[in-house]
Design brief:
The chain has eight helices and eight strands; from the N terminus they run βαβαβαβαββαβαβαα. It is of the alpha/beta class. α2 runs parallel beside α3. The structure holds D-xylitol-5-phosphate and zinc ion.
């Protein structure tokens, strides 16, 4: 069964508590939280103070995606705030191995993410250390962008790379995923998908998740 992580970036922030409750009631597996610093990506979103508030009401785990430069500076803050999975970008951290292991030592699951133009080969020496690999299927910075089709091949190649080495971190895909393309994303090898605009503009969260379960052949709800 594919794991679904709605990105609250596309939720109604004036009703965030209710949005979180509705997202959970619809059957989401994780809450995806996009943290942007205005430097690694052009946009600025939320910080660990808001993550801490979210943690007080959320009952499903928090999947925190750091799109910030030098993420090692904030690992402790986000884990203390309640991140269950903390994902950092390969492009943003020179000492990736150290930061990934530090995240795990602090008690969270550690993820590494790569941008669309970053070659998969750069993951070779870190994939044995991570709990999750996040493949960006848009250039990070904003919700509502179009899925980059070449990502499908990248997911397949990642899956092969992991199988060959007998490793099994979660493969997560983020950007432009919707009920329309989720089947191809799942078939390529994704274990978990982020869904922002397609979920929060759907008008019916329960139906959206139920449709996805049906489309991906796992409708248990
Ligand atoms: C993009 C973010 C995504 C985004 C997904 O920089 O990392 O998580 O919120 O939103 P959609 O599903 O609308 O592309
Ligand atoms: Zn994200």
């Amino acid at each position: 069964m594919i794991l679904i992580a709605p990105s609250i970036l596309s939720a109604n922030f004036l009703e965030l508590g209710k949005e979180i409750k509705d997202t959970e009631a619809a059957g989401a597996d994780y809450l995806h939280i996009d943290v942007m610093d205005g430097s690694f990506v052009p946009n600025i979103t939320i910080g660990y103070f808001v993550v801490e508030q979210i943690k007080r009401v959320a009952t499903i785990p928090l999947d925190v995606h750091l799109m910030i430069e030098k993420p090692d500076r904030y690992v402790v803050n986000f884990i203390e705030a309640g991140a269950d999975i903390l994902t950092i970008h390969l492009e943003a951290d020179i000492h990736l191995h150290r930061t990934i292991n530090w995240i795990k030592q602090q008690g969270a699951k550690a993820g590494v993410s790569i941008n669309p133009a970053t070659p998969l080969a750069l993951l070779e020496d870190i994939i044995a250390d991570v709990d999750l690999v996040l493949i960006m299927s848009v250039n990070p910075g904003f919700g509502g962008q179009k899925f980059i089709p070449g990502t499908l091949d990248k997911i397949k190649r990642l899956k092969e790379m992991l199988t060959k080495r007998n490793l099994n971190p979660i493969i997560e895909v983020d950007g432009g995923v919707s009920p329309k393309n989720i089947k191809t994303v799942a078939d390529a090898g994704a274990d978990m998908v982020v869904m922002g605009s397609a979920f929060y503009t759907s008008g019916n969260y329960v139906k959206t998740i139920s449709d996805i379960r049906t489309i991906t052949g796992a409708n248990t709800k």
